[in-house]
Amino acid sequence: MSKIPRSFRLLEELENGEKGFGPESCSYGLTDADDNTMTNWNGTILGPPHSNHENRIYSLAIECGPNYPDEPPKVKFISKINLPCVDQTSGEVVAKNFHTLRDWKRSYTMQTVLLDLRKDMATATNKKLPQPEEGSTF
Amino acid sequence: MGNVPTKLDQDGNPVETVNRPGYPTSGSMSSASGATSTTDQSPNRGTRTRRASSLVSTFLNSGNRYRSGSIQDPNAQGAASAYSSPHKRRSSKEKEAIKEQHARNILVRYDESVDGGFLAPYGSYGFDKLDYNADVVKSLIIQRRLAPFYTPLQDFDSSWSREELLKIVEGLPLHAAFNEHPEEFEDIPTGDLNKPNFDYLIDRNCTKKEYRRTHAKIFRARLHKKRIIWQETENEVFLEAKLDVRSGKVKNNYLPSEELKYDLYANGSECPICFLYIPGPLNYSTCCQQPICTECFVQIKRADPHFPHDEVDPTQPVKDDSEKDPNLLTTEPANCPYCATTEFTIIYTPPKDRKVGIQGIPPATYKSSVPQAGDDNQDKKSEDKPESKDINMSNAVSSDDIRPDWEAKLNKERQRLARRSANATAIHVSNQLVNPEYAVSGNQGSPTRRGSAQNSRATSNSGSRRSQRQGKSIEELENQMVQEAIRLSLKEEEQRKSSTDKK
Amino acid sequence: MASLPKRIIKETERLVTDPVPGITAEPHDDNLRYFQVTIEGPAGSPYEEGLFQLELYLPDDYPMEAPKVRFLTKIYHPNIDRLGRICLDILKTNWSPALQIRTVLLSVQALLASPNPNDPLANDVAEDWIKNEQGAKQTAREWTQRYAKK
């Protein structure tokens, strides 16, 4: 398998993001449609059902650096959330506490990250965690 | 269609007389079946293709082979029977058996050769891209309607001496090197490949969906490994045969004579698609007479099902694909890669003086019919390209011919989309059902060219309309028929009224 | 497959031995399917005197699948969007495996010489092009001066 370069990989992800994926649980897009380095992205996660996140929409900022996808993106919650892998002052998803970023693979995408975060919110221990007031931000 | 079974016998007979292990002294009996295929002017390509595939199974099953992964394998037989009934909904077990069977079917075996080439591809393109119907392709090659899969040379230098060229050809492998550890299967356990059941590799506590996904992944990873093992076994058999002959212990009629090797590779050319040096003659596009090797030809196919490109209405917001009518999904036959003529077909003119291998003389006994001085090389070259007077269009091969399941795939995709949109809104679904275009068209069953191959296969036990509609579920079909019946009776009533009014 | 297909090796060699006037394409050392490309703006077009940087990638299924091509230099053109994506039929539905890197880049160069605002990718630019061609061409010239100076 050959390695698809960063830019073409991000263009693919952009097109997939525009198409929308699966049940409308997550989405993402370029922060600045003019940025041809395609570095900054915003994402949203619809809180999983049967959890304290139900019906909440969480916004995130994703930064795909120059070595993406060889290296994982930097992911940060903008909406306040109480989750063990999220730094409670900055909103940053701490890579060493979140397996998808810790055990990053080149085949992973922003979609993988968002869907895995949503799964993390729905685990037995995390779904009952008390959550900050809806709409508050880091 | 009534005469098909008799034709089958006529064509089948000469094939069965081929005595594979022995290779008796002459190849004369093979010319009979060669003649049959060229004189056959039948316009029904589907029928021909079908006959071709049964021809190959007769032929291959008549051989005695004991290698692993051979067609005689009991699993493979099961798969073959599943293969022949595409109208039933297959279980995932059956589907997997078919995939394994296909993987076995595209192994290069040195003793299955035609005019110096093989019945399976060298491997310039990845395994998952070889989705053509192997039985059809094999029989087209045996009928000399498609060039065999030759082992390509990476480079060719016309300044090479005969000895240099022969040395290079002697060292050619049967198959290109495999990527043994593709990234795709990196962390996937494959377990014991000899045991058919691998459920023990899957976490018992996972959901049904996860189970299915993991099962499919493991199956693919295992098949990838198995295929490498199978092909390597064939490579070893080939190598041992060569060593045995070199040691002078035995004769082997399947191995090509030096003259055959030289004639093949001294008269090759570069395929304009893969840029590899391939023995001639190549296939030629019927529209613009450009050469294409068989390995590239089997890569050319219809685009995946898609919605028409020009369907954008500027006054409407752009529709998501999931909101569109699944029946609008369409595919077009492949275009010629060279001149973009629609409905690409190729024509192949086999070498007249090199009928070796299956239905020909044993490759080991081939003697060059032209003096090796090279002064009538020009003659040979001009023979490669079919003269327009020689082109018999009924022998042309299209990419649909080698993928007779293209329509079933389209219907499957339509169904998949239909199910998805059915989930979205009930209103949307009911609209589809009353859409007259979607309904079965009453008595006017039109003899279109769609799915001719499958149709002919199915005609024995079901009506042709039924098989055309095979992609749809029974409920869907029934719904449509009810709708259609209502529509027709309303129409009838209307007509009756208007005619009585006139009176 | 693990190794680079012969076709890609030969195409790369031939781009060096028989270069296309006004076009360069060189593979990256660490990824031989990934090319750094330059195209000179065609004479007589608003892109004249400009040197445009592009990137080109040959996917796994090349040549059965089209190369991926993108402008890195900003350009004002109705068929090229702000991310440098190109709307060109042979890169999408009309791709043919008989086409090559060479023919693709020549087509891109031809697209610079004759923009097609009726099949736009950048809608705002196309609108400008249809309503006020002279003005649009002037903007294209200014952008060429600003971003694509040799």
Automatic annotation (TrEMBL), chain A:
The keyword Ligase does not apply. PANTHER family: UBIQUITIN-CONJUGATING ENZYME E2 (PTHR24068). Keywords: Ubl conjugation pathway. It comes from the Eukaryota. It comes from Maudiozyma humilis. InterPro entries: UBC, UBQ-conjugating_enzyme/RWD. This is E2 ubiquitin-conjugating protein. It holds the Pfam family UQ_con. SMART domains: UBCc (SM00212). Residues 5-138 form the UBC core domain. One of its GO terms (biological process) is DNA damage tolerance. CDD domains: UEV_UBE2V. Gene3D superfamilies: Ubiquitin Conjugating Enzyme. PROSITE patterns: UBC_2.
UniProtKB/TrEMBL annotation, chain B:
InterPro entries: Sip5/DA2. Residues 307-326, 377-390 have a biased composition (Basic and acidic residues). Residues 40-75, 441-461 have a biased composition (Polar residues). Residues 1-100, 307-327, 358-405, 437-480 are annotated as: Disordered. Residues 25-39 have a biased composition (Low complexity). One of its GO terms (cellular component) is cytoplasm. Belongs to the SIP5 family. This is Sip5 protein. It comes from Maudiozyma humilis.
TrEMBL record, chain C:
Residues 3-149 form the UBC core domain. One of its GO terms (molecular function) is ATP binding. Keywords: ATP-binding, Nucleotide-binding, Transferase, Ubl conjugation pathway. This is E2 ubiquitin-conjugating enzyme. It comes from the Eukaryota. The keyword ATP-binding applies. It comes from Maudiozyma humilis. Belongs to the ubiquitin-conjugating enzyme family. CDD domains: UBCc_UBE2N. Gene3D superfamilies: Ubiquitin Conjugating Enzyme. Its EC number is 2.3.2.23. It holds the Pfam family UQ_con. The active site is at 87 (glycyl thioester intermediate). InterPro entries: UBC, UBQ-conjugating_AS, UBQ-conjugating_enzyme/RWD.
